[in-house]
Amino acid sequence: MAVQEEKPGWLGKSVRRIEDDRFIVGRGNYVDDVVLPGMLHMAVLRSPVAHAKINSIDTSRAEALEGVVAVVTGELLAQHNLAWMPTLSGDTQAVLATDKVRMQGQEVACVIAEDAYIAHDALELIEVDYEQLPVITTPQAALEPGAPVIRDDKEGQTDNRIYHWEAGDEQATEQAFAQADRVVSLATHYPRCHPAPLECCGCVADVNPATGKATIWMTSQAPHVHRTVFALVAGLPEQNIQIISPDIGGGFGNKVPVYPGYVVATAASLLIGRPVKWIEDRTGNLISTGFARDFHMEGELALTDEGKMLGLRVRMLSDQGYAYADAQPSKFKAGLFHIVGGSYDLAATHVVTDGAYTNKAPGGVAYRCSFRVTEASFFIERLVQTAAYELGIDPAELRRRNFIRADQFPYTSATGFIYDSGNYEPALDLALEKVGYDELRAEQKRLREEEGRLIGIGLASFTEVVGAGPSKNFDILGIKMFDSAELRVHPTGKAILKLGVKTQGQGHETTFAQIVAHELGIPPQDILVQHGDTDNTPYGLGTYASRSTPTAGAATAVVARKLRDKAREIAAHLLEASPEDLEWDWNRFYVKGSPDQSKTIQEIAFAAYTDLPEGMEHGLEGVNYYDPPNMTYPFGSYAVVVEIDRGTGKWEVRRVVAVDDCGVRINPMIVEGQIMGGLTEGYAMAAMELITFDEDGNCLGSNFVDYLLPSSWETPNFELHETVTPSPHHPIGAKGVGESATVGSPAAFVNAVVDALAHVGVRNFEMPVTPDKVWEKLVEVGLAE
Ligand code: CDP
Is 738 in the pocket of ligand 1 (CB under 6 A)? Predict the structure, then answer.
């Protein structure tokens, strides 16, 4: 499909967000705002220990409390075959524990009561006899011979290994290493973190005893998929399930999985015959719902003395928690590391990945990242920076020498992805120019030599892969990945657009209206965008991993073009001309050579219901299910400047220059907001965010005092710039952007701190790079005492 020529219109305009009107005046409608007659409230009892056999659960005292309607246990669910449920990766996860608990915070029982306070009070009256078992908190320990088998519930599972995948060509990679002048290595960990959306998870389940219809308001990033999963798992007829995902206070991948709370509330409503509300608290969210990252990575880069990269070897070990629940729709072998070579032209690559069960929460959600690209990108950008110091080549120059060249696209990576487009050098050049790289390097040297000050300049040049499908390569539990848009233009020329994807704050109600406006000339404020209600929108796979614009955004453009084709026929009828003699101009058709003879889209819309050519069907509406031919590959180059305080080890960010290329920008203001959010998250990972556990498996990041999110106070200023390399296959040339900065920036921040000390041989800091780690290093290298 050809990219349309640029024309005056609604693409590239920073239209103010239509949805903000209701949010600013407090009229958003979140799950917790849903109140139904006769509604009950549910609270969840969570395990205080990380690994234990459950000898017994006594619910009698809780049941006796006035106002308690029922206490649900795993045993009760097992009677309905609902004690376990599938994860997104086809593993199983307990809904409520039956035999054992396998992580701290695991759901053990639920109280259903007349109000939320009674439900929570009753939790304390449930007595559980736990018999504690040895706890495993690292994947290395999990894979030790003789380690206790965490998933002994699974037939045939004799150890804690979940998968072993390899990608690339091992032999060719070995040969590349044999020819190398230099081999540079790095071992590091991308720690576990949490998406931590402002709104935790929750649902209101209302199963009508008379009709059997289940209406479930749910914090869901993928309502259609959740409806299908409910139908398959619970055996409910799919037409009787309506999932409504109302306004969502941030998702970031956290709201893609199905959580036990949703299932128990629905089962309870079915059994009791009244609506049941469950609203998760912050600690419950932080300790039990989908985490992200937690990859231990090591690898080597083979290079010539001149800095030409010859080959890459990487070994990754991931800590999956007690269930393999990755939001990982790739059917490629080791698909998650197909982009491990980043933006570099690497002829030979070999990647080995292993995953292990531990006594922690499952997750692996698409936290602003698809297919674990964030981890892969972090690793290659750290490794390249290390190689630059080892070879004595400037880090910018080493990148430049190895970039995939613009004329090599579409480019097949050594492990199998076909990058659709890219032009990496201009993005790096722009970042260097804007940050004043050459002068900065001179200043860095001067300040170090004359004043002993430690300035660091960190770079990262990343490539991201977003927009799953194509359906031939991607599915979730067998549901193929595509997405959809349905568009109806009313007689007065106003329109309603219904999407298969679901916004959680990204501004779809504005940007998708802009796409229609661009294609049909109907202004965005005349277009109502609906999403999130499965009874009311076409089937879609949901919003995560920056897939909305490449899939449903494309569907929106395609369906709008379908309507424009019909509009041409109607305009020809109205103008008594032949359709071929008409020219489209922004919002109207006119007769070639007679621009005064024209009909606007609004006039044509009215005629679609009132004055049609003989035999034409009434109305102006259509639907498109879009199966993209490929993913899109946004990219960018970031430059970060920091200064380390030699007295404390604290590092401060001086400058952040970010050049992003997401092809054609629909709404530059929204894109910039997405990038600032991603940069903040990247900075947070580099500086402070960390979910950690003690040796007994107690989660030490269970609240916002211990789990450090940056506020606006700590967050640095960001200087944003762009290059534009349109996606050749997307109808409007757009690539997704939602997560690019999260993927690209952590390495730039860490590289900057390392760079400040590279001259004394420092090559690595583990994230988060806290002042004490830097201080220790300063002492070690003799720069502090
Ligand atoms: O799937 P998700 O919406 O999280 O990610 P996305 O498709 O990258 O889009 C994030 C937001 O940025 C949406 O509102 C997009 O429409 C907007 N966007 C844009 O205006 N121009 C682009 N080239 C890409 C995204």
Answer: yes
